[in-house]
Amino acid sequence: MHENKTLMITGGTGSFGETMLNHFLKVGIREIRIFSRDEKKQEDLRLKYHDRRLNFIIGDVRDPKSIGNALPGVDYLFHAAALKQVPTCEFYPTQAVMTNILGAENVLEAAIANKVSRTVVLSTDKAVYPINTMGMTKALMEKLAISKARDQRAKEGSSRVVITRYGNVMCSRGSVIPLFIEQIQHHKDLTVTVPDMTRFMMSLQESVDLVLKAFQEGESGDILVQKAPATTMGELASALIEIFGSRSKVRVIGSRHGEKMHETLCGREEMAKAVDLGDYYKIPPDLRDMNYSKFLDETTKAQEGVDEYNSSNTKRLTQEELIKILLRQPYVQERLKA
Q1: Which DSSP category does 14 fall into?
Q2: Euclidean distance between CA atoms 276 and 112, whole angstroms
Q3: Among this protein's residues, is 126 annotated catalytic?
Q4: How far is CA 121 from CA 78, 204, 222, 243, in A?
Q5: Residue 300 pLDDT greater than 70, yes or no
Q6: Which CATH superfamily is 6-167+203-227 part of?
Q7: Rounded to whole angstroms, how far apart are CA atoms 54 and 45?
Q8: Which of 5, 41, 84, 126 is catalytic?
Q9: What's the DSSP call for residue 316?
Q10: Cα gap 91→60, rounded to integer Å
Q11: What is the pLDDT of residue 153?
């Protein structure tokens, strides 16, 4: 299916990008282009894989020319490049706007111009009812993607643009689990923001599965959400202390800039029209134009009693379930060996 296809991943040197390239190298794709501005991480991947199908391209999504030059001949595009750290975006909101919004616009425009058949953009639960810069910029990125799906150029050029939205990816670079493990292994206190704060828990492989689901089945403008269990930050810290047999204590430091107590994967308004696909929700786009009088006979009534889907009302992991999930994560296994 993929033998003569070319895939490009923006921000491809991150945790998601490497997991995704591992998947596609196994299915016999012709070429994978890793587009990022981090030459050191590109060199590390080049030396690690030594695979001629990998093509490393230095560029920045903020620069329309560099992304435009990288896309000719690309069949599939996964847009993962972003500023993702909530506090960083709070302190440097202009930088977040330039990467997460303007950069996404450059990527989507170039994808349509180059007739990329399938583009999947990666979003976050923080884009739903956003209160921080990271969430706000990702919410606007979603709106840009939907606008491209509505755009006649996208329809005529058969470029399919699909959005994925997910919560915390366990053990990804810069996330809390590697931080807690590092603190444990240096015999330090675990710095927990708020013990009762809840977060969705998703493995790196599940994040890849979500993107593949969107890639294979999503229609242009769809938002695909994978259902996920949740845990509290206090329970997560306790589980890691038990796994590593540590004597570290938990030190509560309070919430950081822009943090919520609970994250939301589907808002109430979205749940009213979401399609339940078993392990996933699909939120179809509103592709009407602004001639609303044409749609008077197609009015939709909001469902009564519909609630948002958030990390407080999803399945809550027990301590035993959480420990089992953590022990399955390759990063945790590696650190236990170390």
Answers
A1: S
A2: 29
A3: yes
A4: 6, 16, 11, 35
A5: no
A6: NAD(P)-binding Rossmann-like Domain (3.40.50.720)
A7: 9
A8: 126
A9: B
A10: 21
A11: 62
